[in-house]
Amino acid sequence: xxxxxxxxxxxxxxxxxxxxxxxxxxxxxxxxxxxxxxxxxxxxxxxxxxxxxxxxxxxxxxxxxxxxxxxxxxxxxxxxxxxxxxxxxxxxxxxxxxxxxxxxxxxxxxxxxxxxxxxxxxxxxxxxxxxxxxxxxxxxxxxxxxxxxxxxxxxxxxxxxxxxxxxxxxxxxxxxxxxxxxxxxxxxxxxxxxxxxxxxxxxxxxxxxxxxxxxxxxxxxxx
Amino acid sequence: xxxxxxxxxxxxxxxxxxxxxxxxxxxxxxxxxxxxxxxxxxxxxxxxxxxxxxxxxxxxxxxxxxxxxxxxxxxxxxxxxxxxxxxxxxxxxxxxxxxxxxxxxxxxxxxxxxxxxxxxxxxxxxxxxxxxxxxxxxxxxxxxxxxxxxxxxxxxxxxxxxxxxxxxxxxxxxxxxxxxxxxxxxxxxxxxxxxxxxxxxxxxxxxxxxxxxxxxxxxxxxx
DNA sequence: GTTATGTTTGACATCATGTCAGATTTAACC
DNA sequence: GGTTAAATCTGACATGATGTCAAACATAAC
Lengths: 223, 223
Fold this sequence. Notes:
2 copies of one chain form a homodimer. By secondary structure, the first copy, chain A, is mostly helical. Chain A is 65% helix and 0% strand. Chain A folds into 2 domains: 11-71; 78-217, Tetracycline Repressor, domain 2 (Orthogonal Bundle), CATH 1.10.357.10. Chain A is elongated, with a radius of gyration of 21 Å. The N and C termini of chain A lie far apart (56 Å). Chains A, B: It comes from Lentzea atacamensis. Chains A, B: Residues 30-88 form the HTH tetR-type domain.
């Protein structure tokens, strides 16, 4: 039977009263969950419509085991997105967004997000479509970084304050997605898209035109 | 039997050689197709995952009849998008984009697209996800209008030329989508979104900041 | 080595897409 | 108005995906 897996909710550190001290979670459970998550990431990246069976096969696991760890297909997809979000956040953390002029930091942030998006080209197609709220909540960690940076830039006078900050964040993210799409649809080359994205994002943020020309001039170092 | 419906390809004016002059297409066929299309528009607007059976029911038609007119569910969705695109184009035509300053015309275009998008809030969720090419091709008529306007503005010096024109078009469309999302997700009020979108789009296009402040100042007439 | 935990196998229910064929209705044509 | 082809309806069927359940089996924890 597979009735007792605690992947959904972590109860490890809960000291229940009437619990006759349960046994520890088995190690292969984590191993399976990890394999499934990894396989799902790959399968879905290749074909967003891939079935749970495909994913199970790729993970070297039976289909039912997948359901033992993830309630539904949607839940699995959600978990995959969480993983990718984590990767994105990690790369953004490495970009040291708190240092230097906000405009430069913004370009570094674009680079970071960019790399993540390029690694999972069909990321957008995977989008659950079902609950928009949950989808939005998942992006929160990424948006938070962006918000923080935008706020800093607005305070320093580098960025515009005549539109709401959340909208600015949305606009930046959305432009990033569009540029990513354009590239992996073959409508733009990667360098062209990179430059166009940089210019447009800086413009949206209200950065001084002279500064933009200064920052975006080919392959300058973004320190 | 329902084997001879010519909805897929219009053969009306083809003078076949060995055809023993076939009978005219029956009127109820068009009526059904129309009803199905209309029902699909409504059902899918309410719930993008609505089944073909739901749509058939709403159209007052059997499920099989739907398949008689549209090969697959995807084809039906494609047709729905075509219809909506048509509506959008009509509204854009009414906006007289060739007249007056390009910046003003751009704001009128935003209004027009905006109205269409608000009428079908879940339009984005419907997106087929399957063939990106076809999806892109469908938007072409809308993009054409935008391209034309952008080109005009670039020639007149109102809009920037330091990013590719197609990218500019993509950016404008994508910002419009984002603003629409923000509104129907309740993250922004409609007037706020309208103003923010206007400002951001004009900025992306490189319109003079002074001109922007001038154009966007609440509820001014956009002549 | 015992035992709970996890995985597997196989079966099953459900639902949606898509197809086929026969019976029936309806519009086109004379 | 009657004939006939076109269109729809009914019902059935195949397929494939999502979930669920239960018993047999494997393995890691104690």
